[in-house]
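Recap from last week: sequence in, structure out.
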Amino acid sequence: MNTAADKYDLVLKGGRVIDPAQDLDAIRDVAIAGGRIAAIEADIAASRAARTVDVSGAVVTPGLIDMHVHVYRHFTDFGLPPDDAGVNAGVTTIVDQGSAGAWTFDGFKAYCMDPAVSEVFSFLSVNLSGTLRGCKGGPVIQNPDYIDLEVMQGFIERFPRQIRGIKGHSDSASWSLWGSVMLRRAREIADRNKLPVYVHTGELWKTDEKHRPEPRSVMEETLFFVRPGDLLAHAYSSRDDGVLGKGKPSPRLVQAVRDGVHLDIGHGVNFCFDTARRMMDAGLYPHTISTDVHGDFATHDNDSTLDYSMVGTMSKLMALGFDLPFVVRASTWNPAGVLRLQDEIGSLKVGTRADVSVLDLVEEPWEFRDCNKEVLKAERRIVPRLVVRAGRALTPTNRLLRDVMRARDLQAA
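Predicted structure tokens:
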């Protein structure tokens, strides 16, 4: 219980607090002390805080969680600096999907996880080498010869905090080359450790044309290997062999989602408004929102010219018809549940870690584009104003947020 004598390190004052975990959407003050959420009240006197920040007019949410990034710099050829995907994009927690495998995880932890201000988790690649050379290495990345479940087991046991799941692929290329073996092995190691599997969908690498599967069969076969709590990536992709493809959702896909298999946005380079609308019409909504943000496959010390971001993806989904509380839930509480960390992150409950995103809802006409260059007109978009990471307030650079910021503002950043 808080008393008038309580002294806080920081108070965020006067913002619209949206915390789906507490069914809260109201103007509130948020107090932070010792790196934890200390109080949420209608009015906290400035005299009770060492520092007060006026966030009136802004939306205050639990720290955003991006479930799909690639931040293994200096090893892959598409790894971003972790904090450019994280706190500098308004996001406090990021999950690298499969950049590291068991052979390469030590380096990922030492050089990417540990130095970052953002909290970085990993879904470990089922392949020992991880994404050694990005998409150029498809025949290596998903080669069954580079799987050793006992080696993986050792790393999962050594790093239970950092490794939160297993990354696998299911697309035309992997099925044409090796059938179901990659998914079967991912399923086996995940079940052994009670971890979720995150499944890439949609054609990515060169397919063996002699054994190319019928596009719709790829997802139908994939559904035999996923369980409640697993995630299907790139849910709104344009790819023929993706979650939806060119037709309507199959009854098995609809039932799998009803049973608890999760759809993750994983925006990437194939996010498609038409696919999104068809999925929404079928009642298939994302459980989690993520970006698949990565570098340009150019060097081992990489940058990105991509035009999508976490807040931009949230904004696109609002323009498609989802409301703000929905996209906040899918970017905070839901991913925290996938990570099995709802007692730490994903909410602003008193006592949880003080990871907070302060977001401006900019009300003006804006245009978004998808992989097919279709224009989606929006009346508002989200731009980060402030992040608090474990109690420390930071101003994001917004350096890579080309989808929600004007060029002149990016240059100023």
